[in-house]
Amino acid sequence: LETVVALNRDKVGSTYPSYTYEVSREKIREYATALGETDPRYFSGGDDCVAPPTFAACFTVTRGAAEPFADDELGAHPAVVHGAQRYIYGDRPLRPGDVLTCTPRIADISARGANEFLTIEVVCEDVEGHHLVTSEATIVLLGSAPPTATDSEDGSAQEVSA
Amino acid sequence: VNTARSISVGDELTPVTAESNLTTSVMYAGASGDMNPLHYDPSFAAQVSPTGGIIAHGMYSMGLTSRMLTAFAGGAERVVDRHRRRGRQGRLGGRQRLRGADPQGDGAHPGLRPLAPWPAHRLSSGSAAG
User: Fold this and answer.
1) What gap in Å lies between CA A95 and CA A49, rounded to an integer?
2) Which pLDDT band, with edges at 50, 70 and 90, does B120 fall under?
3) Does the distance separating the beta carbons of B63 and A85 come in below 8 Å?
4) A27 contacts in chain B (CB < 8 Å)
5) CA A74, CA A131: separation in Å to the nearest integer?
6) B27 and chain A: CB distance < 8 Å anywhere?
């Protein structure tokens, strides 16, 4: 049994190296097919083709978490569940040909009970630096919370009353 | 595309019905790139799954609820913020019917009552997680 240590809260605000993702028409079609989508624009060969809102999962969920989970200073461990997921869009859906620069950042670390909550934000911009979509994934790390501290809703630490 | 619509508290969205089985799970794994074997390998799932069996990707059920919400909103152009909290973990199998209503009536964050599973995710490769 490996020793589980709590996440390093000094890492909140840290960013990880950006990666690039290019949106393609065929990947949109494949993703839409997997969800049983019926909107013809997801399957269009024309200029009206757009991606479904959760298409961003293809390049933010596992890829966005890869660097943080490889960071020994952060201290994440693999006993996790995906607690919550949010996508915040700019002024339009993703389209074929979009070339995204995706930058992961540790947005928040908190604890409740025995579990820790790690929020990884991935900001995705086009080549001109225009915001297209931001992913916020809250990962629940099971069992690694410090035994005496829990967090209130505003994120500040407080002692647990016995 | 709908240009304007009134939304009232308690309005119900048009339900989405979808299969959830090994085929849909393999398709979603390939499409999304989330190749966690918990979602398609029975022997692996038997060791680590909280349900004892294969469970669907949480993002699959978020995708299905997103289908319903995007249709309600009038297309992907009208969706600016999509949020999914953790739901139950569930086994694969059978047909899911997803329905939702808007308890706040603000239209921006329609509260859902998702009936689909939300899985454990292992984000790093390597040894099996507990």
Assistant:
1) 6
2) very low
3) no
4) 31
5) 27
6) yes
Residue of chain A nearest B130, judged by CA positions: A79
**What is the ipTM score, two decimals?**
0.83
What is the 8-class DSSP label of residue A55? G
> pTM of this prediction?
0.79
Residue B43: CB partners within 8 Å, gap ≥ 6? none
pLDDT digits (tens, 9 = 90+) for A68-103: 999 999 999 888 888 899 999 998 999 999 999 999
Q: How far apart are CA B109 and CA A43, in angstroms?
A: 27
Give the C-alpha separation, A119 to A107, whole Å: 5
C-beta of residue B13 within 8 angstroms of C-beta of residue B69 = yes
Contact A79 B130 (CB under 8 A): yes
Closest CA to A100 of A48, A42, A67, A51: A51
Paired strand residues for A61: none
